[in-house]
Design goal:
Oligomer: single chain
Helix content: 40-55%
Length: about 270
């Protein structure tokens, strides 16, 4: 995979996608949207990759759509073309949530607009202490419910907090984002790479099938009643109990050693 609009690296079972347009605060172009979507779709079938990191360079993680490349062009489009664009942005969220592997957003700086959606479409958010965040859509006269924000955000911070964040579009500082559960960790900027690597290492060494099943359940059970969810979990767990990772996990527990799940690094 060799995208042109961002950097892609793969090592030790981890794929790292780095937004690398610091001069524009890592704003998104039509090409970036397309290549991110294609890359996440491709990663779904790449068994060698056990976790994915999304990060940026410079003083911003991502500040949303590029003013010249996207916003300016949208003003001249007809309704059908505008709907084509908004559906394309939603496709990126769709493939991120469908990806079996966990995604860690390593937030190196300002997170805004569609960049905030990239963060909440990830599974874990580790932020530098400079990474303020805002869902800016209402600031430009649009709905705060963009790219799945009204579905994703309440599940992370609750309906009340999500309502405030999406209706005002105001920035939240990293400490507050941590307090309300929007961020999983906030660390000094110089420790961001270290803390991200530590989280990713735990995920990579886990059971790939078990982690993927957990992600699917967290996604699908939002639409289920308790009885349906219990039945689904019972079936999935029973199936996983027939797999080698369960036997290895039990053997490691009884031997008081760290498990070596199938495909995990040595």
């Amino acid at each position: 995979m060799t995208p042109r609009s961002f950097r892609y690296a793969e090592a030790g079972g981890v794929a790292t996608l780095t937004l690398d347009r610091p001069q524009t605060l890592n704003s998104l172009t039509f090409e970036v949207y397309r290549e991110l979507t294609e890359t996440f779709r491709w990663l779904a079938g790449r068994r060698e990759v056990r976790a994915v990191v999304v990060t940026g360079t410079g003083r911003a993680f991502c500040t949303g759509g590029d003013v010249k490349d996207i916003i300016g062009h949208l003003l001249g489009r007809d309704p059908a073309a505008l709907l084509e664009f908004t559906r394309m942005t939603c496709d990126l969220v769709r493939v991120m949530r469908a990806l079996p592997q966990p995604i860690v957003a390593s937030l190196n700086g300002t997170v805004a607009g569609a960049g905030a959606i990239l963060a909440i479409a990830s599974d874990v958010r580790i932020a530098a202490d400079t990474a303020k965040i805002a869902f800016l859509f209402v600031k430009v006269g649009l709905s705060g419910a963009d790219m799945g924000a009204a579905w994703l955000l309440p599940r992370i911070v609750g309906l009340g907090r999500a309502t405030e964040l999406l209706m005002t579009g105001e920035f939240v500082d990293p400490a507050e984002a941590l307090r309300i559960g929007l961020y999983n960790r906030v660390v000094p900027a110089e420790r961001l790479a270290e803390e991200t690597a530590a989280m990713v290492d735990r995920l990579v060494r886990g059971p790939a099938e078990g982690v993927a099943a957990t992600k699917r359940a967290l996604e699908s059970e939002a639409h289920m009643d308790l009885e349906t969810a219990l039945e689904q979990e019972a079936r999935i767990q029973a199936e996983l109990m027939t797999r080698p990772d369960f036997h290895e996990g039990f053997a490691a527990f009884t031997a008081k050693r760290r498990p070596r799940f199938d495909g995990s690094p040595e």
